[in-house]
């Protein structure tokens, strides 16, 4: 069964983006796709594939009737889908399970906010266009190579062969000029955020991209204080992952940890996929007690109910454990503070965050939210309330760690950042409260 969405799930509920290292073009090839793609198009396809991979992972996790499972993989090949004016509308990715076709996902380009247009759990005539790159004339039974795939305003896919003949996916010839244009209504914010995401992805190397795909597929787990695991002791992590013979000390002049934040866990506040709500709760305790936003309720239930109500209005669903989409993080911050009369306080999503921007957020404002789509905190939001820099006494190298409340424990934990082997996809949501 074909399932159509045609709306922006921008970076899905994915919690995507991050700190990127290196740059290398990614080579894609598909039977009916054009060769000689620019590096910009490779970056766009990589970004789209990351979102599709997360869409598939989210469907497996949250949809009891999903036709995909943990063995379902997104193909590296992308078939370009064109609009009726020969502009690039999106990409079609085939899904495979143990080498067998397991459907497909069609996603728009970043110009349309990376909207999931359509997906299916099983192969059909549409997916065959991408897999075989061939079309059979329904009348003559002549088989020709597909040069381009179009999507019309009637949501029908059109195949063009190398002789400029046009067919629907059933092989029937059509009058191309009579087909209406396909349209996606998308706002400029979604488009801009999607383009920011592509810029970030462009800085990943091949190996990092592949590692992120694996993280998205099944999450990355490991022992505590090792690469991919929870970090409870940065010095132990550094001995495990950098060099066990070195001595590591805190550089106090390049460290800052805020006091007075909340330490509630997701379970403390009722659970049901409420990590973003919990992270905001713990941050607002700081803004109330340390920055003078005294209108904020001092009651746990009072404050959390306001957060939950606003989150529900933005798409969170307690009953179905549907978490809040990352693109709504900023709206949640803004709306909750507004409920307490603070109309000048706003949330700001940053998909192009760096270590420096995180330090500035802590120094200029206070705790911020960080939603991840890779590593041990895949599909999870934490609250960041400080940073610590550690020095290597042997060669003066430095290593940056973010100090977090992760909502799984009331204790302090860390994210290993600059100078460490780790890298993350994530969205940083600054709470702009002076």
Protein model, in words:
The protein has nine helices and 17 strands. The longest helix has 24 residues, at 39-62. The chain has helices at 39-62, 125-132, 188-201, 206-218, 234-241, 275-290, 300-313, 329-339, 355-364; strands spanning 2-7, 72-82, 88-97, 100-108, 116-120, 134-136, 143-151, 157-161, 166-168, 248-250, 256-257, 346-350, 368-372, 380-392, 398-405, 413-416, 426-432. It starts with a strand and ends with a strand. It has 434 residues and is of the alpha+beta class. Strand 4 and strand 5 (116-120) form a beta hairpin. The strands form two sheets. Strands 1, 2, 3, 4, 5, 6, 7, 8 and 9 form a nine-stranded mixed β-sheet that branches. The chain is globular.
SSE diagram, text form:
Layout: E1 2-7, H1 39-62, E2 72-82, E3 88-97, E4 100-108, E5 116-120, H2 125-132, E6 134-136, E7 143-151, E8 157-161, E9 166-168, H3 188-201, H4 206-218, H5 234-241, E10 248-250, E11 256-257, H6 275-290, H7 300-313, H8 329-339, E12 346-350, H9 355-364, E13 368-372, E14 380-392, E15 398-405, E16 413-416, E17 426-432
Parallel strand pairs: 2-7
Antiparallel strand pairs: 1-5, 2-3, 3-4, 4-5, 6-7, 7-8, 8-9, 10-14, 11-14, 12-17, 13-14, 13-17, 14-15, 15-16
Helix pairs in contact: 1-3, 1-4, 6-7, 7-8
């Amino acid at each position: 069964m074909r399932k159509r969405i045609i709306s922006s799930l921008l970076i899905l509920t994915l919690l995507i983006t991050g700190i990127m290292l290196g740059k290398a073009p990614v080579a894609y090839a598909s039977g009916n796709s054009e060769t000689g793609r620019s590096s910009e198009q490779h970056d766009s396809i990589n970004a789209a594939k990351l979102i599709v991979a997360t869409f598939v992972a989210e469907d497996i996790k949250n949809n009891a009737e999903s036709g995909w499972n943990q063995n379902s993989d997104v193909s590296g090949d992308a078939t370009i889908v064109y609009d009726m004016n020969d502009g690039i509308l999106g990409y079609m990715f085939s899904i495979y399970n143990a080498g067998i076709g397991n459907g497909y996902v069609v996603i728009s380009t970043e110009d349309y906010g990376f909207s999931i247009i359509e997906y299916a759990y099983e192969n059909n005539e549409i997916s065959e266009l991408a897999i075989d790159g061939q079309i059979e004339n329904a009348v003559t039974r002549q088989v020709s190579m597909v040069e381009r795939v179009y999507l019309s305003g009637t949501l029908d896919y059109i195949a063009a062969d190398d002789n400029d003949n046009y067919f629907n996916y059933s092989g029937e010839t059509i009058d191309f000029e009579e087909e209406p244009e396909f349209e996606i209504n998308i706002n400029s914010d979604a488009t801009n955020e999607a383009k920011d995401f592509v810029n970030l992805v462009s800085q990943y190397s091949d190996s990092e991209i592949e590692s992120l795909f694996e993280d998205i597929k099944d999450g990355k787990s490991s022992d505590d204080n090792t690469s991919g695991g929870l970090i409870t002791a940065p010095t132990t992590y550094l001995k495990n992952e950098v060099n066990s013979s070195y001595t590591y000390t805190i550089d106090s002049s390049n460290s800052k940890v805020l006091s007075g934040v909340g330490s509630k866990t997701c379970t403390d506040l009722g659970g049901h996929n409420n990590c973003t709500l919990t992270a905001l709760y713990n941050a607002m305790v700081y803004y109330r007690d340390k920055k003078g936003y005294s209108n904020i309720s001092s009651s746990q239930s009072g404050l959390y109910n306001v957060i939950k109500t606003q989150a529900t209005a933005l798409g969170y669903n307690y009953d179905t454990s549907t978490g809040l989409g990352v693109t709504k993080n900023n709206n949640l911050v803004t709306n909750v503070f507004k409920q307490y009369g603070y109309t000048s306080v706003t949330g700001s999503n940053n998909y192009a965050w760096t270590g420096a921007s995180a330090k500035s957020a802590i120094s200029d404002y206070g705790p911020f939210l960080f939603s991840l789509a890779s590593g041990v905190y895949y599909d999870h939001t934490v609250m960041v309330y400080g940073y610590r820099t550690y020095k290597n006494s042997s060669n003066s190298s430095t290593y940056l760690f973010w100090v977090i409340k992760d909502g799984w424990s009331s204790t302090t934990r860390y994210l290993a950042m600059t100078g460490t082997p780790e890298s993350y996809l994530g969205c940083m949501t600054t709470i702009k409260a002076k």
